[in-house]
Amino acid sequence: MPLSPALLALTLASLTQAGLLLVAAGFALRILRHWDLNSGSERQLDLERRTYLVATLVAWVFGANLLSLLLFVYNAEQLSTQFVGAMCATGVLNANAWGWPALYLKMALFFAGATWLLLNRVDNQAPDYPLVRPKYALLLLIAPLALAEALIQWQFFSGLKPDLITSCCGALFGPDAQGVAAELVGLEPATSLAALYLSGLAILVVGLLYRYRGWGGRLFALLAALGFVIALAAIVSSVALYVYEHPHHHCPFCLLKTGHDLVGYLLYPPLFTATALALGIGLIRIWHRVPSLAGVIATEGRRLVGLALMFFGLFYGVATWLILRSNLVLLGSG
Amino acid sequence: MIRLEQVSKVFNQGRHNEVRAVRNLSLELDTRGVTVLKGPSGSGKTSLLAMIGCLSRPTSGRIHLEGRLISNLPERFMTEVRRATFGFIFQRFNLIRGLTVLENVMLPAYPLAPDPRELRDQALDLLRQFRLAERAHNQAEWLSGGEAQRTAICRALINRPRILIADEPTANLDSQLSRELLALIGELAEQGKGVLISSHDPLVFDHAQVSRVVELRDGGLA
Amino acid sequence: MRALLRRQRYLLDYSLSSLARRPGKHLALLLVYSLVVFLLASTLLFTQSLRREAALILADAPELIVQRLVAGRHDLMPADYLDRLGQLRGVSDAYGRLWGYFYDPAVKANYTLLVPRQEPPVPGEVRLGAGVARTRGLGVGDYLSLRSARGEPFSFRIAGLLEAETELVSSDLLLLNAEDFRRFFAFPADRFTDLVLRVRNPSEVRKVAEKIALALPDTRPILRDEILRTYDALFGWRQGLIIVLLGGALLAFVIFAFDRAAGLSAEERREIGILKAIGWETGDVLRMKFWEGAALSLTAFLAGYLLAYAHVFFFAAALFAPVLKGWAVLYPDFRPLPFVDGLQVATLFFFTVFPYTVATIVPIWRAAITDPDQVMR
C-alpha cells in the first residue's frame, strides 16, 4: 500500500464517518424503542435533545463524505504516476477489484446522507415529528453503508501495489474491453446523446407537472435517478470525447483537470445536487398524506423541485455548451 | 386564556434526589391584566411560570394557550410559541456583558432574521420610549440598576409579545426602583399586554394594577 | 432563502462578537491550531516541491539508460555495445556517457564528475556546481586542484558556475571534458560509464527495453518512468511517514480542542442560558457555535498555510530541510518554485479542520442543550 498523505486522510475520514454513524445508529435504536412525544418525562426530553446531536453528526458525515469524494478522485489521479500504464484516475481505480466499488459506495453515501437530511428537515417542520420512526430506521440502514464504504476503501488501498500494470483509460475504455465501462463506451454517441436529451426532457416535463399540479413526485425521483445514470453514461461515451476533442479518450475524471478548464466542476456538482434533491422529493412524497405534513410537503416539494430543475438545467446547459464549442465531429457525415 | 390541567413537574426523575416542584395543578389564567403568582420560595411558582412561558415542559398534564395544546410540543416549536407570545424579565435581568445596550435588546430577534435596518429602528424606538436612547451604544455592564432593568424590559418587548412574564422582578431592587418598575409594568398592562409576575414581595401583589393574585404552596394552590 | 441567509448573518455576527469578547481564551487555541497547520503544511509543501523538482529534472532525462552488469555489479560499458543498440528499431538516438564520483578529502565531500554532451568545457577547464564553489571558496577564473587516480595533482581552470535553478542535483557537480575525464580517472579508452537511448514514441520504450535485455543479456535497461515512479513512491512514503510521526501531535491537538470546547466558563454557560431563555433555539445556538468554529478554523488554516508557504518557498524550509533532504554533505541551497496544489490543500484540511470539528461536536451540542429555564433557577 502506498503510504501517501491523501490516502491516510481518506482512511482516517472514512473510519471517523463510520464511527460517528454507528454512534448515531445506537441512538436511533433507543429512539425506536422509547420515543413518546406525549410524555414529558426526562428520558423523552433527553431523547429530543439528542436528536439535535444526531442531525449534526449526519450533517458532518455528509460534508466529510462530499469532500472525501473529491479527494478520492484527486488522490487516484495523483497515484496514477506510480502505476505502469495508468494515465489517469481511471487506471488506478482499475488497479484492483475494489476501486470502483469504493467510489460507488461513496456516491451512495452521498445520496443517502442528502436524502436523510432533507427528510429530517421536513420532519422538523411538523410539531408532532411524525417521521421520527421511519427517519431513524433509515439511519440504521445508512450506518452499515458507511461501514462498508470504509472497509472497501481500505481493501482498495491496501491492495494497491505500485508497479502493477494497469490498463490506462484508453485501453480500459476501448470498445473491445469487457464489462460495464466498456458497454458505456460501446454506446454510439448518437444513442447516448439522444438518451441524454430525452431523459432531460422527461425530467423537465414531470418536474414542471409536479411543481404546478402536484402530480408525479415519485415519478420525478425515478426519472431523475434514471437521468443520473444516463448522464454519467453520456459523459463517458460522448461528452468527454467532445471536451478532449479526441475520439477515444473516455475518462470521466480528466474533466476535473486544469488542462480541460476544470469543466468537470460545472458538470458534476449540478448533476449530483439535482439528483440528490430529486431523490429527496421522492422520499418525502411517501408521507404526503400525514395530516401534519401535508402542507409542509407540498410547499417543500415545490421549492425542492424548483431547485432540482434549476440544477438539472445547469447540467444540461453546460453539457450542450461543451458539445457545441467542441471542434470534434462525432455525429453526422462530418 | 391559559388553561392548565393536572400539571406536574418533577426534577431528577427516578433518582434519590427527586423533587416534585409542581403537583397536579389545575388552573385558568386570563391573558389580560396583571396576574401575580404569590408564594414562598420553593412553592413552585417559578417552575409554573417556566412551563406557562414555554421554557420547559410539564412532566405530566396539559397546558393550553388560547385553546392550543402547547405542553406536548418539542423544543423547536415551543421556542416558536415562546418567541411569538411571551417576553421575559428575569430576576437578575441577565443582560449579556460586553454587548451594547442596543445589541442586548435586539438579541431575541436574531433567530427570526428580520430586516437589520427595521430591527435596529425598532430597538432604538423602544430605547427612546424607556429613556435609554443615549445609552444605546454603552456596554451593558456599565448600566445603573434602573437602566439595566429598563433595558431588560426593552429586550422583553422587542418581538412584540402579547404576554410579559416577570420572575421575582423586584427581588434585587430597592423600594424606589421597585415602584418605578411596577409603574412601567402597569403602563404596559394598560396598553393591553398581559402580565404574569411571580413574587413574594408585598409591594408587588398589593399594587393597584394587579387584577388577580394566585397563591401557591408546596407545588399546589394554597 | 433571503431570511435563511440573513439568519446566518445574524448568527455569524454574534459569534464573531463573542470571539472578540474573549480574546484570551481563543488566542491559545488559535496559536496551537495554526502551529499544527504550519507543521503539516510545511512538510507537505516541502516534500511535494522536492518531488516536483525531481520530476522537472527528469522530464529532460533520456527515456532509457543501459548499464552493464558483471557478477551483479555495475561495470563499465564496452563502446561497441553502442553500435548494436543504436540500430534497434524505435531508438532515435544513442550515445555513451562518462561520469563518476570523486571524494575530495580537503572538504570531506563527494563530487559528481560528468562529461556533458552539449558544449563540453575545453580541455583544462571545468564548470562547477554552486555547492562545490561555495565550500571551496572558488569563483570564475580561479583554479581547482585535485589529485588524480594515479596520484598526480590536476589543475582545472574554472570556466563557469552552474545555474542555481536545479541546484538540488547540480550542487555537487563538476563538468569537464572527455579527455580530461579519462586521464583524471585513468579510464579505459574503449569504455563508457553507461549508455543512453532516446526513444521518441513513449509506447515503444518498454518494447525496446525488452529487446535490449534479449540482445545483450549482461546489461540492465533502466526506464525514466520507473525512476520517476520510484521517486514518487518514495516521496509519498516519506510524507506519509512524517504524518504518522506527527500523528501524536495531531492527537494532542484534538484533545486540546475538545478540552477547550468542553471547558466552558461559567460566564459562557450563563450567556448561552440567557440566549435560550430569550428565544434562541438549540439549533440556533448550534449554528452560532458552528460559525465560531468555522471562523477559528479558517483563520488558523490560512495563517498556518501562509506561514508554511513563506517558510518553504521564501526561507527554503530552514527549519527542517536538513532532515528531509537526505544525507548529502554539500547541502544544496534549494529554492523550490512556489506552487499551490488542490489535493494537498484538501489533504491538509482533512488532517486539521476535520479532527477539530469532530472533537468539538459533542461539547458544542452539550452547551447548546442548556435548559432555557436555567436562568430562572
Name the descriptors.
heterotrimer; B: 222 residues; alpha/beta; Rossmann fold; six-stranded mixed sheet; four-stranded antiparallel sheet; 10 strands; globular; C: 377 residues; alpha+beta; 2 domains; five-stranded antiparallel sheet; 12 helices; 13 strands; 55% helix; elongated
Characterise the protein shown here:
The complex is a heterotrimer of chains A (334), B (222) and C (377). Chain A is mainly alpha-helical and 334 residues long. Chain A has eleven helices and no strands. With 222 residues, chain B is an alpha/beta fold. A six-stranded mixed beta sheet of chain B has the order 6-7-8-3-9-10, sandwiched between helices. A four-stranded antiparallel beta sheet of chain B has the order 2-1-4-5, with helices on one face. In chain B, a hairpin with a 7-residue loop joins strand 1 and strand 2. Chain B is globular, with a radius of gyration of 17 Å. The two termini of chain B are 21 Å apart. In chain C, helix 2 runs antiparallel to helix 8 (224-262), helix 2 packs antiparallel against helix 12 and helix 10 runs antiparallel to helix 12. With 377 residues, chain C is an alpha+beta fold. In chain C, the strands form three sheets. Chain C has a six-stranded mixed beta sheet with strand order 5-6-10-7-9-8. In chain C, strands 1, 2, 4, 12 and 13 form a five-stranded antiparallel beta sheet that branches. Chain C is elongated, with a radius of gyration of 31 Å.
Main sheet properties of chain A = none
The outline of chain B comes out as: globular
Distance between the termini of chain A: 47 Å
Q: How many DSSP H or I helices of chain A? A: 11
What is the CATH H-level superfamily of chain B? P-loop containing nucleotide triphosphate hydrolases
The SS-based structural class of chain B is alpha/beta
Rounded radius of gyration of chain A (Å)? 22 Å
Estimated share of beta-strand residues of chain A: under 5%
Percentage beta strand of chain B: 25-35%
- Tally of separate domains of chain A: 2
Mean pLDDT of chain B: 89
In short:
Chain B has 222 residues and is of the alpha/beta class. Chain B is built from 7 helices and 10 strands. Chain B is globular.
Secondary structure layout:
The complex is a heterotrimer of chains A (334), B (222) and C (377).
Chain A: H1 5-34, H2 42-79, H3 89-93, H4 99-123, H5 132-158, H6 169-172, H7 179-186, H8 189-213, H9 217-244, H10 264-285, H11 291-325
Helix pairs in contact in A: 1-2, 1-5, 2-4, 4-5, 4-10, 7-9, 8-9, 8-11, 9-10, 9-11, 10-11
Chain B: E1 2-11, E2 19-29, E3 34-38, H1 45-52, E4 60-65, E5 68-69, H2 75-85, E6 86-89, H3 101-106, H4 116-129, H5 145-157, E7 163-167, H6 175-190, E8 194-199, H7 202-205, E9 210-217, E10 220-221
Parallel strand pairs in B: 3-8, 3-9, 6-7, 7-8
Antiparallel strand pairs in B: 1-2, 1-4, 4-5, 9-10
Chain C: H1 2-21, H2 23-59, E1 64-70, E2 73-75, E3 77-78, H3 80-86, E4 91-97, E5 99-104, E6 109-114, E7 125-128, H4 130-136, E8 143-147, E9 153-161, H5 167-170, E10 173-175, H6 178-185, E11 191-192, E12 194-199, H7 205-215, E13 219-223, H8 224-262, H9 266-277, H10 282-313, H11 321-325, H12 342-368
Parallel strand pairs in C: 6-10, 7-9
Antiparallel strand pairs in C: 1-2, 1-12, 1-13, 3-11, 4-12, 5-6, 7-10, 8-9
